[in-house]
Design brief:
By secondary structure, the chain is mainly alpha-helical. It is about 75% helix and about 5% strand. The protein has helices at about 1-25, 30-50, 50-60, 60-90, 100-120, 135-165, 170-190, 195-205, 210-230, 230-255, 255-265, 280-295, 305-315, 320-340, 360-375, 380-390; strands spanning about 120-125, 125-130, 205, 345, 395-399. The protein has a three-stranded antiparallel β-sheet with strand order 1-2-3. Strands 4-5 form a two-stranded antiparallel ribbon. Helix 1 (about 1-25) packs antiparallel against helix 2 and helix 7 (about 170-190) packs antiparallel against helix 9. It starts with a helix and ends with a strand.
């Protein structure tokens, strides 16, 4: 079950890299994105050729099986070569010299194929066995693959991690860290073959198929690298969905505050039964505006001396420092609503300070969520309000 899921994830990764090729024609240098797409296509194809379904499609017989095994290893090397070339292209742009590493990769692939052919593998049950005469070639095949792969992948992990640390927060940095995880999984996947080398040297045989940990590491590699490479394609859609979810959560969280203001000033709510018709973001925008309209409608009922006393009372009541400001806002608002119901108006004083001057809707909504959280702690608000209003220096009120 897990192995099947791993292979399906590889197919998804293959499709993601294909999509990135189409997108790259409009947004990125074509050569650079071809190299990145080549990495994803090679590594995904290399995994797919080792699946049982591909073995059945190739037909019975040792020749077909050895061809698929060699093709899988060669495609892995090709994927690593594409990854290194991509990194050089990103660093040095159009002036990057890709030929030396391409020749090195090609030579390694030729040596690997020659060692594999000279090793004359034979299938015995679920193992591949070698004769004493051909065992050195089999070891050479594994060691060449491991040395080339581990050195190249290790360098890539360092490069991507260093780039991610210095990148500005945002999609680029997130994509780089996803690539770090993906290439790290590729390193672990390759390093897993060290056990095969040890077993091969001792017994002249190795397992003929990819084991479950290798399949999972391979799928992890393709999944994270595909996610990092195609982040620009799917991040806006995910961000949009997350934005709507965050807006709806904020919309619901400020509802107690909005409900109290609507009861005190019914005119602030315009068609409340269809608030969500325009989407969560628009509904949140309306609710923020309506709360501020209610605040303005009650401005004559705000005691200008209350905030300072409420702040002192909140600290004495043990309100955490981070929650003092929203608690003071909730207290002054509750007192204004109470004064409005009693018909009390306060003599004009200094204008109440705006806690968020020039704030956008998101910042304003976040602040109101904090105030609403304090508002829901009704016992604390009432205790702070009672303490503040019992002070002898309460300002005179006029009916």
């Amino acid at each position: 079950m897990i192995e099947t899921l791993a292979y399906h994830l590889c197919v998804v990764g293959f499709a993601a890299f294909g999509y990135k090729l189409v997108e790259a024609r409009r947004s990125q240098p074509v050569r650079t994105m071809w190299l990145l797409a080549g990495f994803g296509i090679c590594i995904a194809t290399g995994i797919l050729v080792l699946t049982p379904a591909m073995a059945e499609l190739a037909g019975p017989g040792p020749v077909a099986e050895w061809v698929l095994t060699l093709a899988g290893d060669e495609l892995k090397l090709g994927a690593i070569g594409f990854a290194v070339a991509f990194t050089q292209s990103v660093w040095r742009g159009e002036g990057a010299r890709l030929a030396p590493h391409a020749l090195f990769t090609g030579a390694t692939m030729v040596v690997l194929a020659a060692c594999f052919a000279l090793s004359e593998p034979k299938r015995v049950g679920d193992d591949t066995v070698f004769s004493p005469a051909t065992l050195p070639f089999a070891l050479g095949d594994k060691i060449v693959f491991l040395v080339y792969s581990l050195v190249s992948l290790g360098l890539l992990v360092v490069v991507f991690a260093r780039s991610a640390r210095h990148a500005e927060p945002g999609p680029l940095r997130t994509g780089l860290w996803l690539l770090v995880v993906g290439v790290g999984a590729a390193f672990a996947w390759t390093f897993w073959d060290v056990d095969d080398v040890h077993r091969l040297a001792e017994t002249a045989r190795i397992g003929a198929r990819e084991d479950l940990p290798s399949s999972v590491l391979a799928a992890t590699t393709v999944g994270f690298v595909a996610a990092g490479a195609t982040l620009s394609a799917w991040a806006p859609a995910v961000s949009s969905v997350l934005g709507r979810v965050r807006a709806y959560r904020a919309y619901r969280r400020i509802e107690p505050l909005w409900t109290a203001l609507r009861a005190a000033v019914p005119g602030i709510a315009l068609d409340p039964d269809r608030e969500l018709a325009g989407g969560a973001e628009f509904a949140l925008y309306r609710r923020v505006i309506e709360i501020r309209d209610g605040h303005l409608a009650l401005r004559a009922h705000f005691d200008p001396h209350l905030p300072a006393r409420a702040e002192t009372a909140a600290r004495r009541a043990g309100v955490p420092e981070a929650e003092v400001a929203p608690t003071v806002e909730a207290v002054t608002l509750a007192a204004a609503i109470e004064a409005s119901r009693a018909g009390r108006r306060f003599a004009p004083g200094a204008a109440l300070p705006d806690p968020l001057p020039d704030a956008d809707v998101a910042t304003e909504a976040a602040w109101l969520v904090r105030v609403s959280r304090a508002w829901r702690r009704g016992a604390v608000v009432e205790r702070v309000k009672a303490t503040a209003l019992d002070r002898p220096d309460v300002g005179a009120a006029s009916p």
